[in-house]
Amino acid sequence: MTREDEIRLIAAVKRGDGSAFERLVTENEKLVYSLAFKMTGSREDAMDLSQEAFLRAYSNINSFRGGSRFSVWLYRLTYNICADFLRRKRPDAVSLVNEEGETLDVTDDAPGPDEQAEAKERREAVRRAVASLPEDKRQVIVMREFSGMDYAEIAEALGISVGTVKSRLSRARESLAEILRTDGTFSDLGPSNPLETKNGKGGGPND
Amino acid sequence: MTECERYIDMISSYVDGQLSDDETAALLEHIRVCPDCARQLRIYEEVSALASEDVEVPEELHGRIMSAVVSAAAPKKPKNRKVIYVTAASLAACLALTFIGMKTLFPAVKSDASAEFTAAEYSAAADTASPAEIESAKTAVPDGGTPLAPLPELFGGAVAAADDNAAPPPPEDAEILQPYVLPGADENTAAGSAMTGDWSAAEPTLPMKAPEEEPDRVSDPSSAMTFPVSDPEGAQSDSPDALYTQSVEIYVFGPLPEGVDWDAFEKSTDENGTVRIVVDEKTASLLTDMGYSCGVGMGNDEFVVVQMDEG
After folding, report:
1. Are both A79 and A122 inside the same structural domain?
2. How far is A3 from chain B, CA to nearest CA, in Å?
3. Residue A25 CA to chain centroid, in angstroms?
């Protein structure tokens, strides 16, 4: 959806055209849900938070002035809702680990191979580690790693320069790696041999 | 580590594919001789791989979001009127539960002894709201009695009421009926919460007339959990049952879908262009098949009892 499409739809929503809002939902629900799911690790929580995000977007559509793209505005709204949710849950963070693991099981209860279970465990460990990062680092990690936004998009969403995105992301990754090394999640990882990787992306070559 | 610190930002940028060829060559040269940085790169790559996994969006998400938005945008309901929106997939379960709701609404009402459902049978139906079991519940023969009428006939007055663009007027004794809210079905309660409630234990809270005033109603407390399940004629007649026709209220944003004779139904449009329509169950079913959200209620404009599961 182009920016012009978004502007046209939002103008229609402001005039009371519900079908225009439904198009915005269709266009953005995956982005919103994926963010909520990856931040909470729970299907039910992600559904509730997605619903909340769109409800707030609808209620506050008149405050959207078009300074950024709607998707970016909605993304930030969703992020804030999820961050608030995690903050409220933080006192239970210790016991949450198991509960969230069980919740994850609900989304994928098919017994899979060991590697699948292990990947799921590691994914959950990454989610917890990301959740424990300080806010400024968490923002960039969530946007880059969870939502796949590029540097320019992150810069737009956070109102910072691309250079700042780059350095903040590096600091955030360092912290994240430290947490995951300490908690034993990646204790078995060997060094990477990038000569065998493609474009510096993808899994490690030492598998 | 000073040399490694020079490369740490480059490792991050490398994972994102943001390095120039020269920078990449320099980093790889360092990685070759530095196991710490090689391990760091491996962790970054692993995190990226784990975090970027595609998330499957639940099918019901869209309906849930739109239902919430439509509810928020809908005009205020009259006092005591509660409508819970459902998606197409769960309409069948809704209808089954609306059916169940009759029991709770009219625990002491009995107008056709040959077509009674026991509380236990309704509880069973409530607990098993799959389409097949709903069908089974509709045609079950309790205690050797006559088969129950198919579900639409239970609400024999519904279509007529809709065709007349209005619910039948309440009979004179309508004032004895008070709004009744099912357990756990308040405005903000998640739909379906009462699904797990003990229906058979639900206390009837409707005021009941004394038997001498209502000779056609059951006065024996032991029969208090039986109620009419099939009385199309009664529903269309001037009996109290005519009150309890099923109404289905829908809200439509934008143009009305084709294929329905909209003139047959009562409708109003609010200032936002949201069209509110009261339709019959058959039309609601058609609309939900087309992807529209419907609220299913029972009662008249004074009250509606809704209990349904989001599926």
Report:
1. no
2. 22
3. 17
